Amino acid sequence: MASESVPTSGRWRPTGGHRGAVSRPRLQGRSARPARVAPTAPVTRVPRSDSGRGRVVLDVQNLRTYFFTYDGVVRALEGINLQARAGETTGVVGETGCGKSVTAFSVARLVSEPGRVISGKILLNGVDLLWGLDREARYRRIGTTGRVKVSRNFGEIRAANQRVGSVRGRGVGMIFQEPTQAMNPVFSISDQLGESLLLHRGVEILDGLLRADRVAPPIGPIVEEGPGIAPPKRGGVHTSPEIEQALELYLNAAAQGDSASIRSTAADLARRMGLPSVATELVQYARTAGKPTARLRRMAMRSLRRVHLGAMQRRYIRHLRRVEVLRQRLNGVYLEEMKLERHNRVGIGAVRVRMRLEKLRHFYFGIRGIKRRMYRPLRNELFWRTVEQLEQVRIANPAQVARGYPHELSGGMLQRAMIAMALSCQPTLLLADEPTTALDVTIQAQILDLMRQLRESVGTAIVLITHDLGVVAEVCDHVNVMYAGIIVENGPVTEVFRRPLHPYTHGLLASIPRFDQPDRDLQTIPGAVPNLIHPPPGCRFHPRCPYAMPICKEVRPEPQLQGPDHLVACHLYGGAEETSPAEGEGGEVVEGETAPADDLAEPLVPPPS
Fold it and tell me: Distance (Å, rounded) from C-alpha 22 to C-alpha 24?
């Protein structure tokens, strides 16, 4: 690709500073313009360097999301571009109402009515999640009122939801800003987290149950101890000497109260039984049972006995495994459709027929009484796996929380339970919409550290949406500054904090209190985020910008490269002749794009590419 030279004449150069410093030009008034510097040498615009960085997991290109209300069309996202790489955290910051949460919901295809993703591409590992978007709806203006009638094709929408549903969980995980959006108040925490585990890791869990039932040593019946009862041999059960020895070590550690020894001996006992969740169960029993050895022994033996399945339970687990394998195969067909961008109705129909035949062949497992009894081993396994997930988010009493309901938990506790649900599937891409808003400072540090560990161990790409620039400086590798549905500046965190370019970024950084300048007055950005039904023409920030020029009111600025991976959309960088007209309020079409569909009286949006 040939390099392109960008002249520097007329470019404003703000003063530099160290990371965290706020560099602002000195102004005499709102109408003052920044000082221009003498041209030195032309700066060559080069492609972004990918050396030393992970592969691109998420690539959002020209994404537009609108909300069709009775007052008009709310242009929530107007052509944003965003990337997230494996093993990196990408931050999205901005004021309330700038479109940060709408970005996350659009990527996960969770925008509800009256909103619609209009155009663009959302590439997840090279697969376009928006394939077939042009067939889902058609748009027609209603007179001159500014309202738009949306004619939806519900068959295509249902098919698109099924395709995107195949990548949610393991592909895309999301932490919602409001925990109540992800929790059902009529089900317990363990039921909801267990459903997520079974849906996305079902084959792994069912294989673990069948393997433990096959390799675990036999455990005999529990014999009660008491006055007048002869002491049983080897703890009152028929088991192997290795299991008995490991059990004694666990009981001794529990009697001494050493947490580290309890965990290590419980893990060793669980390894011998072939089921890792037994370790979590034994640790919780040691916490609740106290030091009485007889009671703790009975509880431990009950935990070891649940590893073994009855004949009918074994058939039921195998039946569920076959269903889960077919479900994964169906998800694979959906993913193949998005990869090849071609329908495969025959393959989808064949897998669905096999699933119906499998359920019909074992219809008796659907009878309520039989299903409840057969489901018991799996329910216990899911419960203790849920407890293990809750332990990872630093919940003090995870077993009690798992048995509780959402309304019984505080806001911070419910937020951590929802984070545990999102992290349990180890997704490739994690969308964190202000995950630490309802948490106190110490818990915030623990949750951010947990997300960092997931990023380093699994290579998850994280998109972190937050208002806290301190969190961005501490956690993120790359930051995107969003204003009124447009990304106005993005680049590496160290570069953006050291050399902020856009006036809006200056305003955000100027509002942060600093310990090294206790007497400095905090600055505010006058005005508010504009009404996106009638957004300002040209640059959307120009009504609040102290450096607004006449061109800012007419032409939307295009992103300009001002350093390695540092982009800014502002007319203060580059001449007007370098900026191509963007779509304005009146509906002008961007240069180089074709006209929209003929059923629109006026151009609403460019057609999907």
Answer: 6
